[in-house]
Structure formats: structure tokens, C-alpha cells
Amino acid sequence: MAEAQQAGGRSAQLERTGLRHGWTTGACATAATTAAYTALLTGEFPDPVTIELPKGQRPAFALAAEELAGGRATAAVVKDAGDDPDVTHGALVRSTVRALPPGAGVVFRAGPGVGTVTRPGLPLEVGEPAINPVPRQMMRDHIASVAARCGGTGDVEVEISVDHGEEIARSTWNPRLGILGGLSILGTTGIVVPYSCSAWIDSIRRGVDVARAAGRRHVAGCTGSTSEKVAVAVHGLPEDALLDMGDFAGAVLKYLRRHPVDRLTVAGGFAKLSKLAAGHLDLHSARSQVDKGFLAELARRGGADEELSAAVATANTGLEALQLCAARGVRLGDLVAVAARDTALGVLRGAPVAVDVICIDRAGRVVGRAAERGPRDG
Q1: pTM of the model
Q2: CA quadruple 4, 249, 316, 181: dihedral sign
Q3: Which of 41, 55, 61, 268 is the most exposed place for a label (fewest CB within 10 A)?
Q4: Any bridge partners for residue 341, and if so which?
Q5: Distance between CA 364 and CA 227 in Å, rounded?
Q6: Is residue 244 within 8 Å of residue 203, measured between CB atoms?
Q7: CA 289 → CA 118, 317, 344, distances in Å?
Q8: pLDDT tens-digit profile of 336-346?
Q9: Helix axes 25-42, 133-150, angle to 10 degrees
Q10: SS3 106
Q11: Per-residue pLDDT tens over the stretch 25-39
């Protein structure tokens, strides 16, 4: 019991939710691709197939379908989202692998049910299949490993498809973002963290309690694992000072208002923190959206002319708005960070907590900072 009480940090916080984790579409696609390429080289499908996730976990996936014929191999995995109410839970993720000439590398294709990018502002070029960068790298790494083990060159075409994906995608933001034809293949850790408002907020509170009990006077509320790494790199914080805030910025701020520490760092993706900057305390996409009009007004205050402000107001995504401003020398990331810090201080209502903010892009690069400011700093 004593060990459980002393446990802290993001891992312990996740355990306190009591909910079962699941696997991202990216992890499922990687497992299916690994099995298919193994079969293409050896004639046998590994079942279950084991993969390694970015943080070293090694889950095994049972195959739901397999086919080897005509110079191609197809394997399929059923997505298990655990206890998360994910619209893709139960979806069948397929990977079809075909050999390419030596030197061709790994080429990704969107099969039925996987979308194609049609607008700028996403981490993929227009015309590319909606398979995000981390899942692509996971598949490349596993293809290379199978090639080394089984005598292949690693030059393959990988076509990812999702049964009924186009229909499922109608319940996502993909159509509004210009991702047409189906779902995106997503995930940065390979793991789906189960989402329960009450359990997650309770875990945030317990995380603050553990940090305070350990004597931590500086904590970081992070929207995800990438921003957590950045907060650690910038401030050198120990694990028990890290709060997996997720979308619940309000829960962190309200609890710290009653149970203060000397300093809070808020770290997160630019788009999510732009919502906090606009006054939203729940950053989930189902309950708040990036307000491009608000970003345009911030850009105007930062020196943007009317043409740039109008372009920001009609941008496809927050990322595109950020890129438009960066190209013209307007530091929209800093402006968002400052506004997010001011929102946080407003929620803290004079509690003795100083706040700084770090905004990052999808690659984990810092794109905005707001310096530490406390309730007495004017």
C-alpha cells in the first residue's frame, strides 16, 4: 500500500483511472503490416503478431483475416479501443503489402475506408493518404526489421484500409478538415488512453496530491505525451511533477486554486492551447473548437495586416493559421501562449500559483512561449 501511495507521475495517474487501455489505429495497422510482410517473405503469417510501440511496450495482436496470393499479402486486425468510447472500436484494419523494386523504399497507399488529404494545414501533404507520421515510422521500422530477419529488401507498397471506414469517418472531424474517403490512421504512442471524465479528473486531482506530498513546488499540466517530453526537456521536472491534463485544463486549474503549488507549466499542442486562450476549459474536440476568428484577432494585435488576418480567419486548421503567420513574421504561437496563460491566471483567481505556457506543433517543436507570471505581477 505504501508503494501505491508514493507512486506518482503520468503512469501512476493513468493506472488510477481503473479503465482498460486499447490500441490506436496506427498500432493495428503496424501489426497487420508486420504480419503481411512476414507472410510475403516466408509464406506464413505470424499469429499472434507482436510489435514494439514507441515507448517499448510489446503487445501481441490476433489476426482476424489473412490472404496470400498474386504477389501480395493481406492481414487484418480488429481495433480494440479498450474502455474508450472510440468510434473506431471494433473496426477491421487491413494492410496489403506488395513487393517493389529495390531502392523504391516504403510507399503508402490509402485503401478503401482510409481518407486522403485534400486541404493544407495538416501534418501531411495534399494528396497523401491520411496515415499520420508516427504510424508511418512505426510501419517503416517494422518492415525493416522483418526484411533483416527474413531476407527481404524492405521495398514495399503498403495499402491500409478500414472496413466501413468511410461511414465511420462521418462521425469524426475528417470531412471538415478535408480528409475525404475515410478515416485517418493515428496515434503517437500506439496506446488509446481510456476516456472517462470523472475518472480522468479524479486522476488529475490525485496527481496534484502526490506532487504536493512529495514536496514538488513546480508541476506541469500536459495535453499529451509529446508535450510532456517538451516540459521535461525545458524544465527538468521529475515524473511525479507531471500531470496528464489531457483535455481537462479546467480540472487542473480549479484544483490548484484550492491546493496551490508555486508554479504551473501548461504545455500542449498549439490548437488545443488556442482553445484555452479563447477561454475554453475543456479542450476536447466534441466540446470546443479552434476559433479561427479569435486567432485572426490575435494575429491582428501581433501586427498582421488585413490580408493575413483574413487568411487566418479562413484557414483549414490551427496549424495552417500558425504556418501562415510564421511565413509573415507574426508570432502567433507566442500570442496564443500569452492568452492561454492569462486565461489560466483568471481561473486561478489570485491563488499563489505562477503560470508559464509552452505551445508545440505536431512534431514537438516549441512554437510559442509565455514567460512565468503570477497573481502579483500586474
Answers
A1: 0.65
A2: positive
A3: 55
A4: none
A5: 7
A6: yes
A7: 20, 10, 18
A8: 999 999 999 99
A9: 20
A10: strand
A11: 999 999 999 999 999
